[in-house]
Amino acid sequence: MFTGIIEASGIVKKIAIAGSNKTFWIESPISHELKVDQSISHNGVCLTVESVAGSIHSVTAIDETLNKTNLGTLKEGDLLNLERCMIMNGRLDGHIVQGHVDGTARCIEVAEKEGSWEYVFQFDEKFAPLIIEKGSACVNGISLTVFQVKRNSFKVAIIPYTYNHTNIKQVTENSIVNIEFDVIGKYIMRSNELNQHS
Question: What role does it play (predicted)?
Answer without folding.
Answer: Catalyzes the dismutation of two molecules of 6,7-dimethyl-8-ribityllumazine, resulting in the formation of riboflavin and 5-amino-6-(D-ribitylamino)uracil.
